[in-house]
């Protein structure tokens, strides 16, 4: 037990400084010292790609801070009022209180427009950072055991971020956001049997009703952020508990972490990076205007804004709707709108497939070990090809979601763009998968050649007998380790279907499926064998030339 006193050079006891007494008081009740001693010197590896997660965290903090400020002035009501504010073009126009209060925030509240812009841009950066961060985790295999649960936390944060962004985007009740809400209402109504019930429950009656802004407001500022904040805390706790992943290199293994301590090095860098992110977002918000609601006008159900586009993260959902043919089925006096219902089913299925992928890969490989060393994407060609194929598919849908903008800006036929999107929806991911896999295998072959023969220097030498050769520089031990540290799996095999007594063994469909998938991941022509120590010795000894 510590005491709040000190002893001077003459042996007299003096009262400790006030700060030390406060720290001693807090430690005696909260156990802060022991907690800090165990965790504040935790080691974190230093790599630029790890900052992607920090961008997500810092932009989320910015969203919370600016959102709190905006809630002080926003009125989430759809009651109709006549505008008499400072924005002259809108004076005398009937609008909802939500829209009027957003105009007041933009033109009358000190710093209100800047805070609105920062809030919106931070949301865009947060979701962009989430997507890129998850792709980094995906391509490097950082989702493997024991981090599958943390992957699910990140996936839930991305999914909830989409919903939070959509509900916040809809709150001003302007013509652009109202068009997006109407779009969502159409997707809900396409759901057989229960679609109308869900729509009436969500909007409080016939669209647009009189309650959806208030309901979206509660969801946007209370329900979804509360869940997301809990997920962020759980995500960070698991990062601390599992320790951070790291790229392969000398001295790095699954049992250690090479890097800098949390205090003081990493915290100092993180603090500076937070203000850098805040400054960049504030600069973008001050320079680039986004969602100028005063130019759109208040929402009216009988009007649609020209060139209406959602925020980028909802672009692929709109692309699914726009590219889907307008098919309908009539039966029993009811119309099933397949042109909307099928995309409404595909959208969540795609999100679910992203969430469950770590468990699928673990089942295919049968690998139950812990992994703390990251893969180079080229050394997992099938996984990398899947990721690139998904990104290309996402890009195709983004083009489809903005087909009218592409048509007007590049003077193209909107029908041609739509048909291009429909064909590319199926063809582009397959082509991207094949090309990416071949590139990864080519990079593996180059790595193997560099290990065995060294790095090409570009220096040409002529031998005494007239032959010209290029000088190769041997790689350092660090480079050799990096190029050969990855592990290569063997594909799962079913084995003999008949035992030594001639009795046929039953093979389930699940086993056959797993074997085929495993062959697709790690079978012949799906990975290049690493150079062995014997091959390296043979080459470097001079006998291999």
Automatic annotation (TrEMBL):
Region of interest called Disordered, as start-end residue ranges on this chain: 521-545
Keyword entries, A-Z: Membrane, Transmembrane, Transmembrane helix
EC number per UniProt: 7.1.1.8
Compositional bias per record (Basic and acidic residues), positions renumbered to this chain: 532-545
Lineage: Bacteria, Bacillati, Actinomycetota, Actinomycetes, Kitasatosporales
Record's catalysed reaction(s): a quinol + 2 Fe(III)-[cytochrome c](out) = a quinone + 2 Fe(II)-[cytochrome c](out) + 2 H(+)(out)
The organism's place on the tree of life at top rank: Bacteria
Ranges annotated as spanning the membrane: 50-74, 118-139, 151-171, 183-204, 216-241, 262-290, 331-360, 380-399, 419-436
Protein name, UniProt field: Cytochrome bc1 complex cytochrome b subunit
Enzyme class: translocase
Domain Cytochrome b/b6 N-terminal region profile residues, every copy: 22-248
Cofactor dependency: heme
Transmembrane helix recorded as keyword: yes
InterPro entries documented for this protein: Cyt_b/b6_N, Cytb/b6-like_sf, Di-haem_cyt_TM
